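Continuing the series of single-chain predictions for the mutant panel. This is the parent chain; the variants come on the following pages.
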Amino acid sequence: MSKIELSNFEKKIIVRNITHDDFDQIFALQKVCFPNMEPWKRAHLESHLKLFPEGQFCVEYDGEIIGSCSSLVINFDEYDDKHTWDDITDEGYITNHNPEGYNLYGIEVMVHPEYQGMKIGKRLYEARKDLARKMNLKSIIIGGRIPNYHKYEKELSPREYVEEVTNKNIYDPVLTFQIMNGFSVMRINPGYLPDDKASAKFATLMEWNNIDYRPTTKRHFKTSFPVRITVIQYMMKQIESFEEFAKQVEYYVDVAYDFGSDFAVFPEIFTTQLMSFLDEKVPSTAIRKLAEYTEDYIELFTDLAVKYNVNIIGGSHFVEEDDNVYNIAYLFRRDGTIEKQYKIHVTPNERKWWGIQPGNKVNVFDTDCGKIAIQICYDIQFPELARYAVDQGANIIFVPFCTDDRQGYLRVRYCAQARAVENQVYTVIAGTVGNLTQVENMDIQYAQSGIFTPSDFEFARDGIIGECNPNIETVVVGDVDLEILRRQRKSGTVRQLRDRRKDLFEIKYNNIK
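Parent structure:
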């Protein structure tokens, strides 16, 4: 099997600012999203980019604009409580945009109906929140439609309808979404959008408060940089098809999304679960049959990362390239891009049973949560690799592992915790549990997955953010703070990175660029 070209599977999704070249696609998108409402004019969008380009966002997926949003900055106290959309936007031209204002006001969000369910709206809302934090604004205010209200207009007042939606007795595609994204209802404005018949011209005035706002200055201070991680302790058990495997995997990615995670982490070679239905007893032959599912595996995880808006450490998988088999861990970013890390140190067991070949390069990957590295199981037991990754900027080292007994597990755990201390870095281990009774060399598993920190006052007392109970199928969720890590490296009780005696010793890496 030839080497797989990952770019063939990438489906890149980007949140970025709108440019003039996007206008035609935005006009087309508006016609699809709001067919019964008056669309933007080119002069509107020209004015938006002229006055406040950083407040206009779109989502691009494989070169197509599938979502957009517009906003301006105002002093909300200067507007009447019962203002209309035309009042707040100067009839859509936002010429009332005030760079010295205190509130970001959202005036439109569009998501193409064919791409709903991919968290496109959430990405746009998060872009607005990031902008509000960056500009040190007090809040984001929106006049939200209630497009399902026309179905209940004869039996419920607007206030009663909003209460029913808030109490989750009625679903409204806009209001429900806004509540789930942290917005609270301030009041209901009549006549907000005259051509919005579905909402009976009503709108909910809603607000999201920026808790990082500093009232004494317009400057934005970074007080923390939390990154949420969900570690999956995956149960190895008999399955009958790839579709069954995919269903189990999606369940856990959904769990990570529900917890608001930035990363979902799967264990090493957990895809060997597929061997339970391949009906091949010879390990070296079975592993090459497993490698035939590589494209299905990559496509599955790429789709899930984009759909659930979470970066996925896809455990690791046996891949055949140029007649050799490698143990490869993949990073599936939530923007649709993919990276990979070959296992560098192959265990005697992997050589004996499967003929696995080693990789030759330590990678450090950029993500929307800073730089990270992946070191597969045995690799974390070689301290030089972690030191190199941290020297290249890694703040988190993810360690997918697969061990069959407690001794093997403890080697991984103790070394991961040692790497966290000696390199002032977060480490995350994710292992398999259960058994595959019909699969040679994968019969038993032992794991207790966890998230570890350096050892100092700023971190958890025992250097453990969270850990699973051993040998059961479960997850652990925890937050690591990159800002605390940055400060601790500079002024901690001990500073291993800064205090190394480079005049006495150094590590030389061969053939690493």
